[in-house]
Design goal:
By secondary structure, the protein is an alpha+beta fold. It contains 16 helices and 23 strands. The chain has a seven-stranded mixed β-sheet with strand order 17-18-16-15-21-22-23.
Length: 500
Amino acid sequence: MADYIGAIDQGTTSTRFIVFDRSGRTVAISQKEHKQIYPKPGWVEHNADEVWQNTRAVMAEAMAEGGLGPHDLDAIGITNQRETTIVWNRKTGKPITNAIVWQDSRVADDAQEFAKSGGQNRFRSKTGLPLTTYFSGLKIRWILEHVAGARDAALGGDLLFGTIDTFLVWHLTGGSKGGIHITDVTNASRTQLMHLESLSWDREILDTFEIPDTMLPTIRSSSEIYGIANEPAVQDVAIAGILGDQQAALVGQTCFEPGEAKNTYGTGCFLLMNTGTRKIESKSGLLTTMGYKLGDQPAHYALEGSIAITGALVQWLRDNLGLIEKSSDVEKLARSVSDNGGVYFVPAFSGLYAPYWKDNARGVIAGLTRYANKGHFARAVLEATAFQTRDVLEAMEKDSGIKLDALRADGGMVTNDLLMQFQADILDKPVVRPVTKDATTALGAAYAAGLASGYFKDIKDLRANWSADRTWKPHLAPGKRDLMYSLWKRAVTKSFDWVD
């Protein structure tokens, strides 16, 4: 057995390849950003070819950095931004248009149109998801309707659909020369095309959206040996794990028991609670989704609260307003003031996700006076992440009937001590950061691959790797907490129904 396990972590803004040892420690890493493309207001795209070439590059660079060869890797796992939609030609391997990113809201009118018959929850009993702009199914339909010749090509069997995991696996295993066309249950559950109980594509929804099933990948478990890599840096290494990024973080945080939950602070924020083999239908605006399926074991479900804009709001403060030079500067600027100065920022740039699901909401800054300065803006930006997390956590506790004792936090923003302290304050719960804090999604994919290959014996091995790095305990006075949260809720209502 080889000494290490690898993971491709393909995210919204960048692609990483990370090599881990058996204790979950990072041995080598390489990362490349890719371009964010905004053709129109509300549209967000990626160049899928650029993503693939970046993936090849980071694999080669990380392996070289660690002085490693393919023989040093036992297996590779893949984790990816979910819902982002690629359609490509099976003969040439070329996408027929840019990938439509999960944040993209161009299908808002389509979502409303389909909701006229059966409402926004028309397919929720089957898929766990409301009709909204978030998921892949309507994005596929948009491509078939708006890219010249796409529907005819799809009907002729020439086009393939995939989320990023599918596109990468297809290329890694040979592409047009025999690449395998698969996805796992977690990514399939985010298309709004998979039935959560049968774990298969749903014929009624495919017919409703007019999507040919010949485009769709085969659905597999999250942990099994799918195929062998045919890429020089990782030649002949087994590809053995696939998890959507938030489910990968759930596994990386070893949340294997019902009621265990994690929140990942990245471009968006994603709070997932393991509900075990029981599928809980949300009545509070959350998503019912797949948690993971490890080989032949029963599928585990999760409740999810998805927040579109958190870390992306810090990037907006940097790139659009120029108030900071780099994202990490936001904490220093926010600390230049003692509080938010009455400023509340609702970042509904692409509408609001859980628990509101308001596609027609737009961003609002409330409470401005002449007193407000850029420090108050920075603080309001950070606090928006924590407030949105509380919205989701309250809905999750209501649906599940489980009160969380503490929140496990991971992702790029958890290095921001001010944010983590305010998160504990506004939740009135401890927030715990693990030792592996900014590579948890990749670690989860590595765990899934290692379980399939035998590199890890069982989930007890994985639990033994988890340890806390720091815990923040709440210190905010109850009256202040209640006042700030009530003002936040008032600001949220101001963002509703902005677009007709």
